[in-house]
Design a protein that fits this description.
Layout: H1 2-11, H2 16-29, E1 32-38, E2 41-47, E3 59-64, H3 70-76, E4 88-93, H4 98-106, E5 110-113, H5 114-117, H6 160-175, H7 180-186, H8 190-196, E6 199-207, E7 210-217, H9 224-227, H10 229-237
Parallel strand pairs: 3-4, 4-5
Antiparallel strand pairs: 1-2, 2-3, 6-7
Length: 241
């Protein structure tokens, strides 16, 4: 606690969440879209069409910590050849020493401090970047989600499964039921949903010349679109349901 109070007194940041929030605002002004808690990063940035020095769609994985230490450097290490590898890696801290920045860059991680972000005229173009061409790119949500924030304790991660599950729930609401082909299309297990109580089996009907079973949502069991209301609201707003 004393160390955190010292960091807050020195830099003005009282939490990693505050640091991430301020950085997201800055990144969006630079032309990036921001996805908190995505791709195993505190923040995943995706370059828009007008981000100087970046190609549209370039991904930047960001790990944040209130104290610049070995732990955050390890979390930020490039994952060459592994899944979920963005084009660039960033370590975000409130204030970085020359030594910390030197070590980060030797690991091909771009160090960024909150103090720099607050400086008038600062931009991503002034930083040293290390492009990673290895690995499969991180999955990116179909839209930005208001209400999801990086750097929180016990973060809610936004995953491809979660987005697909919510879209499946919304389809059930729209057509009144789900069929086996709806689950197959999204790559989601009916068995898991039945065991979780999110759906119940209904009657067998004829559909496209075949006998199929209908499944109905059980709202009392808190299915994904209710459990993750902020994602549901974002998908609805973006017209992605």
């Amino acid at each position: 606690m004393r160390r955190l109070l010292k960091v807050a007194k020195t830099t003005g940041y009282t939490s990693e969440a505050e640091l991430c929030d301020e950085f997201v605002d800055f990144a969006r002004r630079q032309g990036f879209r921001a996805y908190p808690e995505t791709g195993d990063f505190d923040l995943l940035l995706v370059a828009g069409d007008e981000c100087p020095g970046f190609k549209p769609g370039d991904q930047v994985g960001v790990q944040a910590k209130l104290r610049p230490n070995v732990e955050v450097l390890c979390q930020s290490l490039p994952r060459g050849g592994r899944a979920n590898a963005p084009h660039y890696y960033v370590v975000l801290v409130p204030l970085a020493s020359d030594a910390f920045e030197s070590v980060a860059e030797s690991l091909e991680v771009t160090p960024i401090s909150g103090a720099s972000v607050r400086r008038p005229g600062f931009s991503f173009r002034k930083l040293r970047w290390f492009r990673n061409e290895n690995g499969q790119r991180c999955w990116v949500p179909d839209c930005e989600v208001e209400g999801m924030q990086g750097g929180r304790r016990g973060p809610k991660q936004l995953t491809e499964w979660k987005q697909s599950a919510i879209q499946l729930c919304l389809r059930a609401e729209a057509q009144g039921f789900l069929l086996g082909k709806d689950f197959k299309e999204k790559g989601i297990s009916i068995a898991r949903w039945l065991s979780s109580g999110w759906i119940k089996a209904g009657e067998v009907v004829m559909h496209e010349g075949k006998r199929v079973k209908r499944y109905y949502l059980v709202l009392e069991k808190n299915p994904p679109h209710i459990k993750h209301a902020e994602v549901t609201a974002a998908l609805r707003k973006a017209g992605l349901v």
